Amino acid sequence: YVHTYASWLGADLITLKASIDYWEGVRKWGYPWLWRNRWCMDRLKRIPFFEYARDNVRHSDVVVMGIRRGESLFRMENFGKGMYRYHYERFGVWLNLWLPLLHTDSRVVNELIGRFGIPRSPVWRVGFSGECMCMAGTSKGRLIKILNAYPDFAEYVAKKDEEIQRARRSKTPALPAPLSKEGVTLSEFVKRLKNNSLDPWLDEYEGKSCQGSCMLFDLGDGRDALDQLSSIADKHLGGATKIDAAQLVEESLNENEK
């Protein structure tokens, strides 16, 4: 789909590669979690991108991103206008960011897709787009949707997880974030899913998003992620003064709280 979209756009497609792949990182550091041990953000996305940008993006160039404020509390707190110029000091990179979809909702996005004949991604039919399968910010409900929608992929990650568990020196298993509370490995979770032994009713809070935020996390100005999350939740959800990040990520919130 990415190649199809690039061809429709008439753009050159440049593929960036990290120095390690995801499973090598899991073997070395364990599964990444959204608010701790988030090595995937740095190693797989930010370092390859900013190294490329440092050598190839000019000061006059514009970087276009399709993020929307309604996709996460972080974006709701940190983004209010559609054009920014940011200095990513760690990498010595200045970027002109244009966020043309920042204030749009799903209805407007669908209208634009139809009006301009934008190729539709095959993953949209299962109700999500671009979910990052590092699983750092994936809820249990979303993980079930993905594994059910792509059984071949489910088998693949189960085999990889079994390899990870066998290679561990620690007696405790490596657990992805959405399965940490249950203490269930990814391979065991896939088996339960195939045997239909999981709770069929699962709700989740959709007001968060991992994808894209990795690139913009510098905007937190060095504040501790947990304190930042608490202040954002306090402002937008009301009355939540000191929030456990795992609780916010894992537990569902009702429609009024959204």
Describe the structure.
By secondary structure, this protein is mainly alpha-helical. It is 43% helix and 6% strand. It has 11 helices and 3 strands. It is globular and about 50 Å long.
Please give a quick description of this structure.
The protein is built from 11 helices and 3 strands, in the order H-H-H-E-H-E-E-H-H-H-H-H-H-H. Helices cover 43% and strands 6% of the residues.
Estimated radius of gyration: 19 Å
Q: H/E order of the elements?
A: HHHEHEEHHHHHHH
Can you tell me the overall shape? globular
C-alpha end-to-end distance: 32 Å
SS content category: mainly alpha
- If you average the pLDDT, what whole number results? 79
Biggest beta-sheet profile? 3 strands, mixed
Count of DSSP H/I helices? 11
Portion in beta strands: 5-15%
Spatially, the strands of the biggest sheet line up as 1-3-2
The tally of strands reads: 3
Outline the low-pLDDT stretches. 200-209, 217-226, 239-258
Query: What proportion of the residues is helical, as a percent range?
Result: 40-55%
Compile the SSE list and pairings:
Layout: H1 2-9, H2 22-29, H3 39-56, E1 62-64, H4 73-78, E2 83-88, E3 93-98, H5 106-116, H6 140-149, H7 151-167, H8 186-194, H9 213-216, H10 225-237, H11 245-250
Helix pairs in contact: 6-7, 7-8
